[in-house]
User: Which sequence fits this backbone?
């Protein structure tokens, strides 16, 4: 199998090579799932994925070929950092998008270590996210909520914080995520205010 074109650490050239290998504009896709890029919208997303991954590897001072760095360990750490600012649903979509893209590159004969290490890596990630989403959900009674929140904190601190905001403030997951992402926008002198929910409902100020 081949590596992406471009010197080690020269991620711009390697990103372009990866992008062009997946291009299939104007190619019919009826009846097949080839993991190639058939639309401008998907092209934008895949360019974003590639840049996100390259930026992370650059921040870690890696200088190997981009595709050879796509290992289970590296992607685990990348997702942990990247997901700190994404909602649960966005995390699931992001993982599915990365999975399709890497499988597309693999089909184009690009070496992807992860797909040899753990073929079920992305499916497992999605299941974990779904379990987390189902654990704390609006109008669902949980008799051991404190334990659930504690376990979420241990697994990933920001998930625990979002769940605790849901529970303590009686707000939905989306509003809890917004609050945690932009605390200075909604918290002043220990009071949460101006938080807008579904249907433009404005929550009463809460301590």
Assistant:
């Amino acid at each position: 199998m081949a590596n992406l074109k471009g010197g080690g650490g020269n991620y711009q050239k390697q990103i372009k090579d990866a992008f062009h290998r997946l291009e299939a504009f104007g190619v019919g896709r009826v009846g097949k799932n080839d993991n190639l890029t058939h639309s401008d919208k998907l092209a934008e997303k895949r360019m974003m994925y590639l840049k996100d991954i390259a930026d992370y590897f650059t921040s870690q001072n890696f200088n190997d070929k981009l595709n050879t760095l796509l290992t289970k360990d590296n992607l685990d750490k990348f997702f942990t950092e990247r997901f700190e600012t994404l909602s649960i649903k966005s995390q699931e979509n992001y993982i599915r998008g990365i999975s399709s893209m890497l499988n597309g590159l693999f089909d184009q004969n690009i070496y992807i270590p992860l797909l040899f290490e753990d073929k079920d890596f992305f499916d497992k990630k999605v299941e974990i996210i779904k379990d987390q989403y189902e654990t704390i959900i609006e109008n669902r009674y949980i008799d051991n909520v404190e334990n659930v929140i504690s376990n979420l904190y241990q697994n990933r601190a920001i998930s625990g914080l979002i769940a605790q905001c849901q529970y303590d403030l009686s707000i939905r997951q989306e509003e809890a995520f917004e609050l945690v992402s932009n605390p200075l926008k909604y918290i002043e002198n220990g009071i949460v205010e101006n938080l807008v929910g579904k249907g433009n409902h404005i929550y009463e100020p809460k301590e």
About this structure: The longest helix spans residues 40-59. The chain has a mean pLDDT of 86.
